[in-house]
């Protein structure tokens, strides 16, 4: 350690996505629209699932939870990114940085575990339809969701616990638009080789194994569907296709970022934007455009709003 730099860093400069003023303004306009669509789309799904009795099933309960998590996940990073795009020299305190890191991994961890629960739900529904209501009752579903939240908390607190012990004595430039482990580790003024191995194991390898497990489960489901009636097979295929698309959009970028040594590559920021900002916007469209029940429920909810006295035409 250099004695001249033996002073604790209390804030970091976020280098963000771009340096030019015109480009930052353009990105602000684009990502403002993306964030508004994300909030509206995900909260709409939560409202529709809550308001329509026919959607009070396990599958849609889990979908509503995922949409709420997508809203929260985007909110952890997007508002701060938008403000920083307009700032001249955006900085973030160490405390705020660790707080953002905690919620980022907390919600991200819940999403990964919840997607596993959703895959299990579809597996039971297709493989054991007669026992589905018994195996995936409200109590079982609630416990699985609670376990997902607990798993996300444990995952996140481990990340923060390992990171908060790092000594930061300079440099203080964080090469990203939000705080995350790979960038913070690079700024530590100590040997972080063992810590990197722990982080890669905790993040990357676990994510990769979950992804392979999910792909295997959906492959097994597709094999089961071969002997079903055409109408039932088509409906199940549409649901599974939506799940696989969302799983791929979430897991593949995470594997790219975390399942390798923490080195900088040209595509890192683009991939980070994809899974922190863009993917939460796409999930509502993926789940609703091919889901007739959701579309019908939205139409009914819209019709109910139009039919209120305040919306009637005179």
Describe the fold and architecture.
The protein is mainly alpha-helical. It has a single domain (8-300), classed as Up-down Bundle (Rhopdopsin 7-helix transmembrane proteins), CATH 1.20.1070. It contains 10 helices and 3 strands. The chain has helices spanning 21-51, 58-86, 94-127, 132-135, 138-163, 181-187, 193-224, 230-258, 268-289, 292-306, and strands at 11-14, 91-93, 173-174. It has a 3-stranded mixed β-sheet with strand order 2-1-3. The radius of gyration is 22 Å and the shape is globular. The N and C termini lie far apart (77 Å). 31% of the residues are buried. Mean pLDDT is 86; it is low at 1-6.
What is this structure's SSE topology?
Layout: E1 11-14, H1 21-51, H2 58-86, E2 91-93, H3 94-127, H4 132-135, H5 138-163, E3 173-174, H6 181-187, H7 193-224, H8 230-258, H9 268-289, H10 292-306
Parallel strand pairs: 1-3
Antiparallel strand pairs: 1-2
Membrane topology: Multi-pass membrane protein
GO molecular function: G protein-coupled receptor activity; olfactory receptor activity
Transmembrane segments: 25-48, 60-82, 102-120, 140-158, 205-225, 237-258, 270-289
Please give the domain count.
1
Overall geometric form: globular
CATH class: Mainly Alpha
Overall strand count: 3
Please tally the helical runs, counting DSSP H or I stretches of 4 or more residues: 10
């Amino acid at each position: 350690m250099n004695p001249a730099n033996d002073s604790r860093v209390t804030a970091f400069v976020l280098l963000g996505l771009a340096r030019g003023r015109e480009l930052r303004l353009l990105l602000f306009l684009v990502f403002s629209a993306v964030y508004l669509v994300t909030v509206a789309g995900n909260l709409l799904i939560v409202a529709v699932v809550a308001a329509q009795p026919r959607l009070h099933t396990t599958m849609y309960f889990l979908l509503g939870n995922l949409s709420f998590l997508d809203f929260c996940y985007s909110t952890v990073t997007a508002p701060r990114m938008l403000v920083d795009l307009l700032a001249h020299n955006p900085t973030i305190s160490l405390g705020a940085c660790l707080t953002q890191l905690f919620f980022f991994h907390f919600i991200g961890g819940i999403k990964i575990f919840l997607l596993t629960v959703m895959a299990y739900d579809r597996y039971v529904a297709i493989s054991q339809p007669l026992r589905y209501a018994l195996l995936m009752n409200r109590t079982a579903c609630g416990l699985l969701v609670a376990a997902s939240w607990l798993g996300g908390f444990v995952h996140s607190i481990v990340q923060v616990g390992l990171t908060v012990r790092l000594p930061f004595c300079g440099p203080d430039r964080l090469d990203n638009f939000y705080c995350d482990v790979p960038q913070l580790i690079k700024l530590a003024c100590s040997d972080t080789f063992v810590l990197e191995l722990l982080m890669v194991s905790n993040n990357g390898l676990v994510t990769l194994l979950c992804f392979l497990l999910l792909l295997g489960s959906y492959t097994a489901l597709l094999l089961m569907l071969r002997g079903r009636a055409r109408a039932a097979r088509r409906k199940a295929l549409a649901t599974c296709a939506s799940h696989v698309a969302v799983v791929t959009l979430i897991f593949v970028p995470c594997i790219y970022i975390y399942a390798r040594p923490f080195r900088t590559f040209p595509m890192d920021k683009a991939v980070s934007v994809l899974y922190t900002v863009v993917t939460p916007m796409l999930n509502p469209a993926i789940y609703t455009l091919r889901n007739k029940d959701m579309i019908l429920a939205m139409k009914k909810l819209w019709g109910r709003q139009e039919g209120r006295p305040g919306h009637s035409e005179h």
